[in-house]
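Hi there, hope your week has been kind to you so far. Do you reckon you could talk me through the fold, stretch by stretch? Thanks so much in advance, here it is.
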Amino acid sequence: MPSAKDAILSAHSPEARERWEEMQSRCPTRGAFDDFDLVTGLSHVQQLQCEVLVTSVDNEDQFGAILPFRRIGPFRDAILPRFCPTSPVLIPTDAPVAVRSAAIESALACMARRYHRVSLHLTADVTPLVSNDAWGSTPLYTYRLDLTKLTADITATWSAGTRRLYRKNVESYRVEETADTATAVQLCWNSYARAGRPLPIDQRAMSEFAHQPPGDVSTRTFLATNRDSNVSEAGLVVLQHGGMAFYWIAGSMPGPGMTVMIGHVLQVLRESGLTDFDFLGANTPSIAEFKRRFGPTLHEYTRMASSRSWLLDSLLAARNRFR
């Protein structure tokens, strides 16, 4: 098997960006969450440190991963930032299979040595290449809508109950595109708090970041305001990249506001020429059921994890139990 060489670079170094962008140019597909500036920016807002692993074979880079991590005492825990659903991993496809395999095997071993825990969320095209018996593997899911197949009746593929809820309440709300990202983020933060999972992220910093994120992405913010009370009851920040739109930062008060807003937003996105809408996750049963009712298609991706510290695992499990 060809010999591979791993390099761990600071995400702040020009070399890391240069090598990442060179590998991107050799990848046939490029996702929103592979964007160097978006991922490192999210990591900074959430006070995570960030490194870039680049693995080369015969002096040509064949594997790359941006690895945000947090320190918990003496431990290094490599995790995904919030609002980044999949890990930024690049595997150029222009090399022979043996070369790619050597790079991947070396990179996984390097991550397992450097971090006490590593969690990677891999897209469906990357998963078969990276699969490794030494790492635990769990299926994850998301829902996607093909916007090009939506008809004039935006509710045609919705469940009967969601269709009735929308039609009954659509005139009760004013749905507008707005520059008020802060209100949408506030609604999201309130939703997490109501569910007993408060977000440990500076809300103002996240609002400013989401309003105008760096990199090759853009955002659009929508609010659904109750006409009687003049209160914004639902907010959504849509992330856009190429023809894709993502249900990125979302929150609402209990009630029909979010359902009404999604109906409006889907029409706007379709009319804007976007082709796909990703609901970004269907892994919490109640949330997955809400998203399913809009008629999307289920897609699978994969969580791969490695841990070499039972103590860190125990600490995190205990912390999660008492949240």
